[in-house]
Amino acid sequence: xxxxxxxxxxxxxxxxxxxxxxxxxxxxxxxxxxxxxxxxxxxxxxxxxxxxxxxxxxxxxxxxxxxxxxxxxxxxxxxxxxxxxxxxxxxxxxxxxxxxxxxxxxxxxxxxxxxxxxxxxxxxxxxxxxxxxxxxxxxxxxxxxxxxxxxxxxxxxxxxxxxxxxxxxxxxxxxxxxxxxxxxxxxxxxxxxxxxxxxxxxxxxxxxxxxxxxxxxxxxxxxxxxxxxxxxxxxxxxxxxxxxxxxxxxxxxxxxxxxxxxxxxxxxxxxxxxxxxxxxxxxxxxxxxxxxxxxxxxxxxxxxxxxxxxxxxxxxxxxx
Length: 320
Fold this sequence. Notes:
single chain; alpha/beta; 9 helices; about 30% helix; disordered C terminus; nine-stranded mixed beta sheet
């Protein structure tokens, strides 16, 4: 496969890759001549076996287009966090190609995908199923962010400003009087990592001035507004904390024991946020051998929670 590589016009550590007369699959793979372009995939990417690459030619339906196309997704696109910090970051880095160049996106998508694309004025989209590939005269993509990049923090901060500016232009940033200063995020409607003793937890956080919310009940713009205006945020570890990019609040992340999860701690460091985490007891729902730590519900020690939320004892202080 012959690949052209050039430096991104804004960030020297972002490399733009283009391949002529190539295929783009619904999970972002760029393939040509029984090869796939590994440089554009996430760090945990596993190389496609030859059978899968061949399947792009033999078992997939070709959708031929006459224009270049952008590959921005990967197989983690359905996860809210990965979508923001992988797919949307790619769109941000490649935005000079928009709106003329379409992005290739899976037909199977969630409400948040459509909300994000609408918010960012991404409407030139080619939707394909996992049984289709796009045949384009020029497939374009870029590498993903990695922890060792010098410019990672700057890219994320610039991405934040891009999103906020889009929202301000559209009148979507509301006055702070419409949103609470203290948020407690539950996961009662989630499939896992739910707090099983909310009947004990919620009276305590409400008594300490926190407004209890389920992020799923609100639009994307409203969710960002909650974080944008908050001074303190606490809750069960989950995808909602991906909005930390848009806040200056202190954050208390309640994480189930045995689950190694440092993504939001890294975000806090990037955006200079006050961040602490506390561990909660894991509650098994099924046979322990068939359940990963990240899928277990949690029981929160209310006395410990009270201490973590109490400023004078914990230093959990808003950094204004």
